[in-house]
Amino acid sequence: MSDALDRPDDQDDAVPGRPDQPVRAVPGGVSRDGMTPAGRDPGAPTAAEANPGELLPGGPAPTTAVPDSGAASRVRAERAVLRLARPYLGRLVGAGLLAAATEFAGLALMATATWLLMSAAGRPTLDRLTVAIVAVRALAVSRGGFRYAERLAGHDAVLRMITDVRARVFATLAAGRDGAVQRTGDALSRLVSDVEAVQDLLLRVLVPGAAAALVSLLAVGAAALISPPAAGVLAVGLLMAGVALPALAAVLTRRAADEVAPLRGALAVDAVDLTHGAADLAAFGATGIALAAAEGRAGRLARLERRLAATGFAVDAAGVLVGGLTAAGVVVVALRAGVGGVLVGVLAVGALAAVEIALALVGAARQRAQLRTGLSRVAALLTAAEPAPAGPAGPAAAEPAATVGHDVRFDGVTVRYRAGAAPALDGVDLDLPAGRRVAVVGPSGAGKSTLAAVLTGAVRPDDGRVTLDGTEVAAYRPEELPRVVGGLLAEAYVFHASVRENLLLGRPRAEEAELTSATRAAGLLDWVRAQPEGWETVVGEQGGQLSGGQRQRLALARALLAAPAVLVLDEPTEGLDPAAADAVLASALAATPAGHSVLLISHRLSGLAELDEIVVLDAGRVVQRGRHAELVAQPGWYRDQWLLQEAAERGYLALGPAA
Amino acid sequence: MNRRPFDPRLLRRVPAARRDLAVLAVLGGLTALLVVAQATALATLLATALDGRLHRPALAGFVLAVAARALVSWAQGTVAARAAATVKATLRADLLRAVGRHGPTWVAGQRAGQLATLTGRGLDALDPYFTGYLPQLVLSVTVPLAVLARIVLADWSSALIIALTIPLIPVFGALLGWQAQAATERQWRRLSLLGGHFLDMVAGLPTLRAFGRARAQVDVVRRMADGHRQATMKTLRIAFLSALVLELVATLSVALVAVPVGIRLLSGGITLSTALLVLLLTPEAYLPLRAAGSRFHASMEGLTALDEALTLSATPAAAAPAGTPQPAPDGHGEIRFEGVTVEYERTTALRDVTLTIRPGERVAVIGPSGAGKSTLLNLLLGFVTPTAGRVTVDGVDLAGVDLDAWRRQLAWVPQRAHLFAGSLADNIRLGASDAPDPALARAVRDAALDEVVAALPDGLATVLGERGHGLSSGQRQRVALARAFLRDAPLVLLDEPTARLDTASEAIVLAATRRLVAGRTALLVAHRPALLEDADRILRVEDGRVTELTPAPAGKGS
User: Fold this and answer.
1) What is the ipTM of this complex?
2) What secondary structure, in 3-state letters, does B348-365 show?
3) B110-134, pLDDT tens digit by residue?
4) Is A71 in the B-facing interface, judged by CB distances under 8 Å?
5) CATH number of B335-549: 3.30.70.20, 3.20.20.10, 2.30.30.40, 3.40.50.300?
6) I need a labelling partner for A176 at 20 to 30 A (CA). Which of A496, B73, B297, B331 fits?
């Protein structure tokens, strides 16, 4: 990946440090140093212009965030994003002017050099040419300087703005106002790249677009001073290159994306089916059929891409033609109008260069067409970020009392994730007075994690209520509730930070001794001590440098450090082997202060003998409850499961070994 | 990482693209000639315009050259895109075929995700490589050569200066590249840490919220984003500076050529049209080299995807069966494991297992997870071959048989069946694509899927979302059972069919499972006591070893 930074002469303004950037085709990258079209790649109007994020396999896209993709909504999205640019308007305008200066210097350089040569042919005295010679030198050097300054200023302004965008987007997400309940990993990394679409909008579309427009105007103005008819021809050429062709390119890009997207999506699904379903296909002898279908689709996609490329590149070809014809037209018209020979040359070379600059707008238009979906997603988040009341219950929100113990009650709690679907929780009653320790067990999908989510306020019951000290959980402020209710929840996240920072999330002002005892209870202390950097050991992205077991212990230690009065532990020993799981569960329970209540969610049944109550959930209902000894004695899910688990883990089964 | 601008394996592996690439090279040469022609015509046109005359042949030549260049540039783009499309389609087919060739154990786990991404959209990164970079690469060779050749004819001293200065571009580019790379490597750790921070925070939001820290982190996000900006600017300053140096090198080289030309023009030592030609052509010689360099990065992603695809699809299949495969044995035959050992890369799944399964027997397999239960089934499925020992059916070694034919004797109900994006009926017909409707209806009934079907909007024609999105675990498991019923095979393999089910679904699936194993030879990995009740024998797998248990009457405790 370090190659991402090794680009000394990069024109495409990608910013380093984007390891998570998804595939994004960059047709029409704006190469702005061409004076004549020879070496310039016209930019590739490939069919690769569908937003790849839309086609990701796995996880339905939160389509709600994408409004209709009409022109009006696109403009709205751009406005919403650009509102954030206001504080940096000065810098951005400066960057735009510098970009214009760069292009203009290039144009003037060619024009002046032509003037110089053609005048020299008349063999004047050298001093008549001195000014022009100095100008050529100055323009040649200043063009590079302008470009350098422009790039720095532009990137500086845009990166400052991105900082704001990130903070705003994060604030919206943090406040839970984005509407989307759960985001998959793909949706998350797409969100990150969407934010970067803002950067592209400014650096690759608006700044170069504005500069090209400004230079075009200046060029027409300068030409008009020499010969109004020639300026007219130039204006027509520039309108073609800078308005008509970019508009056409944008339409074609959008249309291509719309045509290609469904096929690409289908192909992505094929790829998932053939890889993740490889075993099923092989076992049922269906690999051949599926393969043939996928290959057929890949072939159809290739044919479509070829067809679209033929029309897309016609725009670039037209651009070349417009440039040449404009120059030729200028020469003819200027000669007819009796313009002096030297100036005819200046006009012709200048026209070629000017059209070339205007053609940069074609690339910008393509880029802009590609950014539309990403931008509207960001805009949806930014507009949602308008100030909102602090909590669901407003300023009157309840604050938990500062006492040690808290009483929790579930009263006929029903949760339905989708209308019409079976309820995840179905009329659950549960009493968790201060100091009580309750385990919730049951088959997967029984509603155990939903129970925890309702208690921590992450999910609201559709029916019934959950109260903390008599007040409904929903009435507490989102920042206040976690002080009292919380712990180790499903899919606890380990941040790419030091062990200490990950732990301190549980209690920001914890002391060393508290860290040590929580870590010891989770069985992670020996590992931490064995690390050369101890508490400062950085755990990799999403805890990737830790084993599954260590991750789980770290999350558990964090929950124990937080030590809320109502401690929720959702599968605290997941990923640990049975012996370690028993030991960690015992020490975690022992480390919980007296007077604090515990809600333990587990699919394993060992280590529950000491708990005050065990609740068996099945399909959202409480089917059994009692202490371990009682439940083992009566027939039912608990006893079946207990016997089986003992058999699997310890090897003694009701069925003895064969003789 | 592979930094070569062109991967020669491409020509070998995608022969269909050879012609397009050759055409691309020819078009590159043509472009160079047209650049020269256009400049020559323009120089003549302007030189005569000095006297106020319109040189009509030159004008016609100029317009013709421009029109031809437009046409060639269109052809170049179209051919490049065609090559990209061909290469992508070929590689996609190759990758997917590799999955079929290697079998499901090769593709399992992380590789499945990598393959799916690569085949799905990873390869689309080749578009900028083919349409942006490759044509530019060709031009960076042809254009300087054509320009030099033309200027040698017109004015050899200018040509000499160009020939001496052109190498400065790649040389400086490489020197500055190293410099910039060293600078960015110093920053790299910091950059990637800061750059990844936002994603990390967003991904961990539920946890932040659970600790009531979400709002407090907004400032941290801002601070880190600001740190990222500063670190980025530091590296950009160096990167942009090297771009500036390259631009100045090119500009100064042009000046080196232009100044003597101007002086000679003043003294009458050169004609105006030659001087103009030199002025118009010289910048063209330097431009393509720099443009190709700047496009290299945009195509890196494509090159990486290409490298991955070529490497993955070329992995040789492990132990390809020698000679023609033997005809498959009958699934009603006796199954024998003879001293079977299966070793994976890091673990040994089965150690020296010997056992016999007689026709019609229902054998349950229990044991802790990871003990090797599924490997037992995978051996019979042909997904895994023994490292030592052999598995025979009816006396025929499975290692040498035609696997597709043998698998026709099997029905398999995995722990978590993959449902395909297609109609429910197609999903059930997976192993019997031409099964008639009545048979399908019977399988649906036997698998207790009929009530599920009745509740769906379009019944059996209902199109399932990706990976069977929209069905619950219990329903998916019943689809898998229906597949097995429709397959109607003599040997049934079930891998914990009731894992992950709630009690109500479990009862339904269990009943259907009993119907399925009736009258068939069955090997079922069990997790529930209820499944054991019907077994004729119970095998216990632990740490790769298989021991036999005799069933005790149901319902007795320890």
Assistant:
1) 0.83
2) EEEEEEEEEECCCCEEEE
3) 677 778 888 877 888 888 889 888 9
4) no
5) 3.40.50.300
6) A496
